[in-house]
Amino acid sequence: MTEHTNKQFEADLEHVRSQFLQMGGVVEAMIYEAIEALSSQDPHLVEKVREREKEVNRHEVEIDERISLLLARHQPTAIDLRTLLAVSKMLTDMERSGDEADKIATAVRRMQDSDRTQIQLVELRHMADMVGNMLRMSLDAFARLDAVQAAKVVRSDKEVDKEWKAALRNLITYMMEDPRTISRAIDMVFIARALERIGDHAKNMSERVIYMVKGADVRHTGVRNTERQARGDEDEGEAGQA
């Protein structure tokens, strides 16, 4: 590439990075507002989440188009090509995280419309805090090209899975002890499942950050191997399972 072309490519690539981080900030806000709507029963928060989902979709389309143009017009170096491929994959996870936040808002609206009394479940707040933090950490790891922090997000997903299972057990107990709570409990299961999936998407994005920085595909290789690859340790012949 000529110097002019190279500068234009770098500017376009930085625009992709910047817009992806903006998209992530919108999804973060959606998660926070959806859970706040659950506790406050504020219908305005539900509407804010629904509006933000349209913004997330717009970002996805625009970033995807920009990546396609960059790949078509230039011949990126190895690290730049990995960045473009990683962001392309991360876009899907980020958009789906927004979809899950929108599903939470939809469930909250359903409870509001049916005037159902909310079931207090501490695990949901814990899950929301954890997945929000995972998403924030994955975005920060992406912005700083920090593979070690990305690996921490991958490990955090195990804690989210534990909270999901605990929430499910408690909700099943509610339904068994009082059949009148079944409709409410099903909505809460729906919300807990959406949070668990957001955690999965944050983990997927963090694995892509490790690929982008280290060139290592750590999917399905276990947490220990992910952490080792993120640190850049030599292969120790481990099976890689936590």
Task: Tag the structure with descriptive keywords.
242 residues; mainly alpha; Methane Monooxygenase Hydroxylase, Chain G, domain 1; 7 helices; 83% helix; 0% strand; PhoU_dom; Phosphate-specific transport system accessory protein PhoU; transport
Overview of the structural elements:
α1 packs parallel to α3, α2 packs antiparallel against α3 (78-114) and α4 packs antiparallel against α5 (147-177). This protein has helices at 3-40, 43-73, 78-114, 122-144, 147-177, 182-214, 223-231. The longest helix is centred in the N-terminal third of the chain and has 38 residues, at 3-40. It has a single domain, classed as Methane Monooxygenase Hydroxylase, Chain G, domain 1. The chain is mainly alpha-helical and 242 residues long. The N and C termini lie far apart (44 Å). Residues 233-242 have a biased composition (Acidic residues).
Write the layout of secondary structure elements.
Elements: H1 3-40, H2 43-73, H3 78-114, H4 122-144, H5 147-177, H6 182-214, H7 223-231
Number of strands: 0
Strand content: under 5%
Q: How many structurally independent domains?
A: 1
Helix-and-strand structural type: mainly alpha
Instruction: Return Rg in Å.
Output: 20 Å
General shape: flat
CATH superfamily: Phosphate transport system protein phou homolog 2, domain 2
Helical content band: over 70%
